Every structure is written in C-alpha cells, then in structure tokens.
C-alpha cells in the first residue's frame, strides 16, 4: 500500500507541471492558416523539428515589445531546424493591414492567423503574448505568458536546450 501511494505521488508530481501548462492539448488535427489562406497542419511543422508558437496581436503593447526579440531568436535558431509560428489573434484585420504592420517592424517570422481563436483555445491561451515551445513529438516543453525585458534570454536558452538535447526534452518543463 505504501509503495502504491509513492508511485501515485511520483506520477502526480511529474504530470502536474505539464497539466498546468496546458500540455493536454493535442496537436492532432490542429491547423495553422498562413496570411495567404493556406492551411498548414501543425503536425507537418513538428515533423521538421521543434516548434515555437507565439500568440500575439497588433493591439497588444507587450506583444509589440516582444516581437523584435522573437525576430532575433528566429534569425539565430531557425537555421538549426526550429520552426517558428507567430499566431496573430487579430480579428477582422485585413491581410494588407497585417502585412503592413509586419513590414514596419521588419518581422520575417512566419505569421499565421487564428481569428476564431481555435488554436488559442486548444493551447489554453488566457493572456498574450503567450509563447509555447513544442518538442518534436508535440509536447509542451516550455511556456511563458506576458513579456518583460529579459524574458527572451530564458526563452532562447530553453529553445537551445531542446535543439541540443532532443532525446531528453520530451515532456520537459
């Protein structure tokens, strides 16, 4: 009986952080929609390597502050096989207006739209900016909400840790 309690406690301690981060979100069937309207299955991106999902909006001040930092991380780590997806939660914004916003900020990260909030709901996004680093298997390896200067340093370290040690990364925190 004591052994069973110890095993149950160990399982709870391992799963609790993952559940708190929304790791029960399955990537199966989730689709991103690029600015041209093309549907891209998330699993297709995950097959290429880890995926960084960043949920943001043009009207979000912290999102605008974070974007240049994400752009820099994207430029450094995309060549190492990391897939980046900036998921705009802007509703009713024209493609042209969104593209102009991105051009003004020199943003070249692949941008997708989630006007209905389907993807945000799947990942339990409750505040933006919200960034999730998904391991190649689709599990949430790291997640952060909001942005304060300096957050990008930890984000980059987490992504680099996943790239350099993918075997131990599945389900890490």
Structure commentary:
With 173 residues, this protein is α/β, with parallel strands linked by helices. It has a single domain (2-169), classed as 3-Layer(aba) Sandwich (Glutaredoxin). Helix content is 43%, strand content 19%. The protein contains seven helices and seven strands, in the order αββαβαβαβαββαα. A seven-stranded mixed β-sheet has the order 2-1-5-4-3-6-7. A hairpin with a 4-residue loop joins strand 1 (31-34) and strand 2. Helix 3 (61-77) packs parallel to helix 6 (151-164).
Explain briefly what this protein structure is.
By secondary structure, this protein is an alpha/beta fold. It is 43% helix and 19% strand.
Features:
173 residues; alpha/beta; Glutaredoxin; 7 helices; 7 strands; 19% strand; globular
Total domain count: 1
CATH topology grouping: Glutaredoxin
**What low-confidence regions span 5 or more consecutive residues with pLDDT below 50?**
3-24
Work out the number of β strands: 7
CATH homology group: Glutaredoxin
Classified by CATH, the class is Alpha Beta
Question: What is the level-2 CATH architecture name?
Answer: 3-Layer(aba) Sandwich
Gross geometry: globular
What is the SS-derived class?
Answer: alpha/beta
Main β-sheet, in a few words?
Answer: 7 strands, mixed
Strand content: 15-25%
Radius of gyration: 17 Å
Given the structure, what is the number of helices? 7
Helices and strands, in order, run as HEEHEHEHEHEEHH
Helix content: 40-55%
Walk across the major sheet and give the strand order: 2-1-5-4-3-6-7
């Amino acid at each position: 009986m004591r052994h069973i309690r110890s095993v149950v406690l160990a399982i709870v301690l391992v799963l609790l952080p993952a559940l708190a981060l929304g790791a029960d979100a399955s990537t199966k069937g989730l689709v991103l929609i690029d600015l041209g309207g093309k549907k891209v299955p998330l699993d297709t991106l995950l097959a290429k390597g880890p995926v960084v999902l960043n949920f943001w909006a043009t009207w979000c001040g912290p999102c605008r502050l974070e974007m240049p930092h994400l752009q820099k991380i994207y430029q450094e780590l995309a060549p190492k096989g990391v897939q980046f997806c900036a998921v705009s939660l802007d509703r009713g914004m024209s493609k042209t207006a969104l593209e102009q916003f991105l051009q003004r900020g020199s943003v070249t990260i692949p941008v997708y739209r989630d006007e209905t909030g389907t993807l945000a709901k799947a990942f339990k996004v409750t505040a933006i900016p919200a960034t999730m680093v998904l391991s190649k298997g689709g599990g949430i390896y790291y997640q952060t909400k909001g942005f304060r200067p300096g957050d990008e340093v930890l984000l980059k370290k987490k992504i680099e840790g996943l790239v350099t040690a993918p075997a131990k990364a599945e389900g890490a925190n």
